[in-house]
Amino acid sequence: MSSPSSLLPLEHLHPALWRAHQLGRGREAVHASGYSALDAELPGGGWPQRALTELLLAGPGWGEMRLLAPVLARVGAAGRGVLLLGPPAEPCAEALAQLGLDLSRCVVIRGDDLLWPLEQALRSGQVGAVVAWAPARLKGEALRRLQLAAQSHEGPAFIVRGPAVAMQPSPAPLRLALTGAGPDALAVRLVKRRGPALEQPLLLSLPPVLSRSARLRALTPRRTSVPALSAVA
Amino acid sequence: MLWIGVHLPALSLESFIATLAPESPEEGRIVEDADEIDLVGPVALIERHRIVAANAAARDCGVRVGQKRATALALAPHARLGEADPARDAAALMAVAHVLMGFTPAVSLVADHVVLAEVQASLRYFGGLPRLLQRLHAELAPLGHALRLACAPTAQGAQWLAVGSDDTTHALSNTRTDWRARIGTVPVARMAAAAPHLAALEALGLATAADLWKQPRAGLTRRFGGELLADIDRALGDLADPRTALQPAPTFDSRLELFMRADDSAALLTGAAVLLNRLTAWATAHHGLVAGFELRLHHESCRKMLEDPSSRTSKLEIGLGEPVSDTAHLHSLLRERLQRFPLAASVIELSLHCHAITPGAPPNTELFPSAASVGEGWHRLLERFEARLGPHNIQRLQPVADHRPELATTVRQGGEDSSARSRTQGAPLNLAAPAGPTATASGDPAHWPRLKRPVWLLREPQPLRDEGGTPLLSGKPLWLVAGPERIEAGWWDGGYAARDYFIAQDNDGALLWVYRFRRAPEVGEVGWYLQGRFG
Fold it and tell me: Among A63, A94, A96, B183, who pairs with A186 as Cys (CB 3.0-4.6 Å)?
């Protein structure tokens, strides 16, 4: 910051270089998340490719698929495959189709050992997007392997883990903790990113499940505890 | 006419080496070329208790052709000696012929492990003789044979020159005089018709073809029969020499007797790789792609098998979603399958069968990867998953027109993308272009149309405790924020369901999909069920 004005700013030396108060830029293309408030806070302006992205959430049903729907839909529309590895419940075809996913390009993988297919899928570079629900105990070594494998994966790769691991180190360059924030809203805390820490969680309005009146009804009994949605949109 | 003669000088030895397990355990790869035979260690072939062929390592130990078996074993105690087997050689030679059939339909086998192919008509397609030969070498390389090649304007000439050519140079004689001079140098020992008369010819001082045609024809014919001079005339092109073209067998069937019994998948893969190379050569001959094959493992007999002869062989069937002609892909599929295939007993023989072949597409000449080639990689990946994890673990979802949520999704197993494969229950809905957000995917997700169904459905609806009309989930009350949506269906198929669905919100703000039966619950019956979560 004290560099003379005649010199080129340091961060222009190399695309992989950024200052602590700036967002990292990276050389890789990114995939827009579809949520402009989120894109503004993600390094490069979207979900990274060739890297793992960790989503930390307590269980299924917080809006994680609605958060990922825009990017998964766009990957499918580009003619590339989407893999869902070890989803926590039975996915509903109609709901996924309504979220815009191309079901003919969407394959669900199940089984006891999902690390092998996950690593193969990332390494092959033939998959458009991967969403994997990690087993409860995932070794750091396995994560490092996955992160290495992800470097040949041209597309976003999400690994969903429990919130307890937020304090543990991870090789994934982007980690997000997702918590509910009232009906049809999601609070996203950026646990780790290439850039400065973000104090406040982001509040995102998800594709709605409730009608306008139902949402008001949902907010009424606990208006005190739920953050106002008007600040989000 | 342009004939290519391919001579395989060490075919018997190489076909035997293919049955050996690799010495180095880390790779299941077959011998790539003649130089690598040395890695195998001393190997020799025996016929009627005499050595008939020995590789370089065995020769270094002093093993010579014609020695007795005991002598050879005394000279090289660790040498592996195998019986010469003409059937094994023929199978290996047929694979070479199959590769050549990828270049021309006019392929014929002649004695002494020579394959002849007439390629005049194929020159233009393959871009000239040098490039054709280059490609021929590349396609024959996986079979792992030492090759001697010769090009000649006549079939007989190609055969003689191929046997003699000490390297792979193949200067093609342009003029008739040149050609006559080259044929003139062929020694009589190489001529099949001269075999019974070699001693007499040597006594007469006739060593080469030129020596023969300088003699009076009538006298030679009287002494040695007409065939000898006729062969020379055929080689010179003075006599017609029609050859019947070989036809590839309609189904592929090849077996490989292993030298040592194989107890693990690595040893099996070595043998299977040889068979797979032959399989792809056969597919090349048909200009087709392999759509599936069956590997049969013949086990060493043990007492159990005497009781049940059917357990003597185990079958491993591999079907491909997308037909291929790529050995590496077939090999990786087979590896995944073999690794999780329990071996009942040691395997002594492998055989590979294939009758599923599809006509090949024209060669891919695209410069940049297109959607089609990307899709191919995706299918191959799914095929590998299917081979390793089993088809039941690879699922595709298909919406079905049914209001009951547990029946509204069918799961198609396997990586294949044909929606025609299993249309068993209900009519599949075509949601390829739903009225949903695909068109507006770029818009703000908050303004997408309302989601009607939860993404996650529980396998079994979870009963919820009821407290004064409010459902409880793990002790905490749920707020019903939307509903009811009545679903009443299935009276026609015995799965009658009459439920009122509500969207409920739990203490943390997550949205759930709960229902209760339309009729009032009996006393002591559970009133509420949790069926889905809006993920």
Answer: A63
How far is Cα B441 from Cα B369, in angstroms, rounded to an integer?
A: 26
Out of 3.40.1170.60, 3.30.365.10, 3.30.70.100, 3.40.50.720, which CATH number does the structure's domain B3-164 have? 3.40.1170.60
Q: Which CATH class is domain B252-360+370-389?
A: alpha beta
Q: Please, which residues 95-134 of chain A have a Cβ atom closer than 8 Å to chain B?
A: 95-100, 102-104, 106-111, 116-117, 120-121, 124-127
- Beta carbons within 10 angstroms of residue A106's beta carbon: 23
So what's the pLDDT on residue B27? 40
Rounded to an integer, what distance in angstroms lies between the CA atom of residue B407 and that of residue B412?
Answer: 13
Is B509 in contact with A180 (CB distance < 8 Å)? yes
- Which residue from B minimizes the CA distance to A99? B437
Q: Which residues of chain B make contact with A224, given a CB cutoff of 8 A? A: none
Q: Which positions in chain A touch B446 (Cβ < 8 Å)? A: 184, 205-208, 233
Non-local CB neighbours of B23 within 8 Å, separated by 6+ positions: B39, B40, B41
Q: Is A141 in CB contact (< 8 Å) with chain B?
A: no
**Structural domain span for residue A22:** 18-178+188-195
The CATH T-level fold of domain B176-236 is DNA polymerase; domain 1 (1.10.150)
Q: Nearest to residue B400, comparing CAs of B430, B434, B433?
A: B430
Blockwise average pLDDT, block size 10, chain B, 535 residues:
88 85 47 49 86 86 87 87 87 91 90 88 88 90 86 88 67 72 86 87 89 88 88 89 88 86 83 89 87 87 71 83 80 86 85 83 60 72 86 87 84 65 43 45 75 87 80 81 84 84 84 83 75 87
